[in-house]
Write a structure and sequence with these properties.
CATH class of the largest domain: Mainly Beta
Strand content: 35-45%
């Protein structure tokens, strides 16, 4: 009995890999045939006027023996040219031939040195070793239809009445909704978008609990809880952006909230950088240089999780005695607790030709594993409002004007308050002059396979 079961198990691969005859029966092991692997050779690519090439072997072809299909789950880059591609196909059978899928043209015999036109799906017909049966596969190569490193913008709204006449705006997302806090006459109002789709509607609510001394630009979102600071030493919190209450106790001097992590508040006060676990007891942070180099105004910060496990706060701001923005970092990991990590100042050395400029309405965002910055006109007048998007890949040391991703052309030179945020779908939202724009790097919207 055991011998019979053993022989049956040995026979299974031969049944699975056998080809089909007209009567759909299996007569001998000579009808054994299947495609073992498919590997693409060098693929040419052209984007605009730039031509290049890449190894097609980087993109694995998946062979599905259940439905006899062959295709790549990870699409080739936008601009890949498939009209002449050499494909190495290994198989067990006698003759492999091909033709365009769905056509009635003659079959061409496959030759590993000949290039194939893969712009449309092919049918691959593999004949068995005994030439009595065959198997037909569908061979398809997928290519991204959008340039992954291009940023596509949509003008969602041109004149949002809820945003008109709003000053000191601060955009953010809360519970997957786009919101904007701002000043209108003597009130602080919340403008809330009902969805993050291209087209949507806005609602307006007057907030409660916030004093006139609040600095809306200090708003921080930690785990869907919001925090703000005031010029008279208070921290306020909210979970819905409408109703606010003080957290902790009032500090002896004004506070500028820099960041809120899971465990600590960070704030600037009278030229000192402070830390508190409860917004009641504050202690001075450790700096690697003089506190006189801390930023004084237009202070923005973001927290990033690095691939190596480090957590890093990037703080950018302005000083009266500096021609460019000043940048500080605080970094910690499992071996160095957050409370013991010191703040590091990034000095602007003579060989650094691309520091972050001093911009009015500075916007600082984490995006695609990098820090990006943009804003209004520069303090020295050399930069127009919203003319360039600056990218830093070294957490604030250098800020290179991006050649790949751009601010919408229609916004260049815009005057007035500029605010922005990034939502959970990687869309960047820019709001200025009651206009609402949304953009995203194409590849961040590609479906993950």
């Amino acid at each position: 009995m055991k011998t019979r079961w053993y022989l049956l198990l040995l026979a299974i691969p031969f049944f699975v890999a056998s080809c089909s005859k007209d009567d759909n029966t299996v007569s001998s092991s000579n009808d054994y045939c299947y495609i073992k692997s498919v590997t693409l050779g060098t693929v040419k690519r052209k984007v605009g006027t730039i031509s290049s090439s890449f190894p097609g072997s980087y993109y694995a072809m998946t062979i599905n023996l259940r439905d006899n299909t062959i295709e790549n789950r990870d699409s080739l880059p936008f601009g890949s040219q498939l009209d002449r591609v050499i494909a190495t196909i290994t198989f067990d059978g006698s003759i492999l031939s091909y033709r365009e899928k769905g056509s009635d043209s003659e079959w061409s015999v496959y030759n590993s040195t000949d290039s194939l036109d893969l712009t449309k799906p092919l049918e691959l017909r593999l004949t068995s070793n005994d030439n009595q049966s065959s198997r037909i596969y569908t061979f398809k190569v997928n290519v991204h239809k959008l340039e992954g490193d291009s940023l596509q913008w949509n003008k969602c709204e041109a004149e949002v009445s809820e945003l008109a006449h709003m000053t000191d705006m601060k955009a953010f997302t809360l519970n997957d909704k786009l919101m904007v806090l701002g000043q209108k006459t003597s009130s602080i109002v919340l403008a809330e978008r009902t969805s993050n789709e291209v087209q949507s509607t806005w609602n307006e609510t007057v907030t409660t609990g916030l004093p006139a001394t609040v600095d809306l630009q200090t708003l921080r979102n930690q785990a869907e809880t919001l925090y703000l600071s005031t010029s008279d030493g208070k921290i306020f919190t909210s979970t819905n952006a409408t109703d606010w209450q003080q957290v902790g106790t009032t500090y002896a001097a004004g506070l500028t909230l820099v960041e809120k992590t899971e465990d600590f508040f960070y704030a600037l006060s009278e030229g000192k950088l402070l830390r508190s676990a409860d917004a009641s007891v504050w202690e001075e942070e450790t700096l690697d240089t003089e506190a006189t180099l801390l930023p004084q105004s237009e202070i923005r910060a973001l927290t990033v999780q690095q691939t190596n496990g480090n957590t890093r706060i990037v703080m950018v701001g302005q000083r009266d005695d500096s021609d460019n923005a000043v940048v500080w970092n605080k970094m910690w990991n499992f071996s160095e607790p957050e409370q013991t990590a010191e703040w590091i100042y990034f000095p602007i050395s003579p060989d650094n030709k691309i520091p972050c400029p001093k911009l009015n309405y500075l916007n600082l965002l984490p995006y695609d594993g990098k820090c990006i910055a943009f804003g209004g006109t520069s303090i020295d007048g050399t930069h127009q409002a919203l003319d360039v998007l600056y990218v830093s890949q070294d957490y604030g040391i250098t800020w290179r004007p991006s050649a790949e991703i751009h601010i919408p052309e229609a916004l260049k030179g815009s005057e007035g308050c500029i605010t922005s945020t990034v939502d959970y779908n990687y869309f960047i939202w820019i709001i200025t002059n009651a206009q609402v724009w949304r953009g995203r790097l194409n590849r961040l919207g590609f479906a993950q396979q």
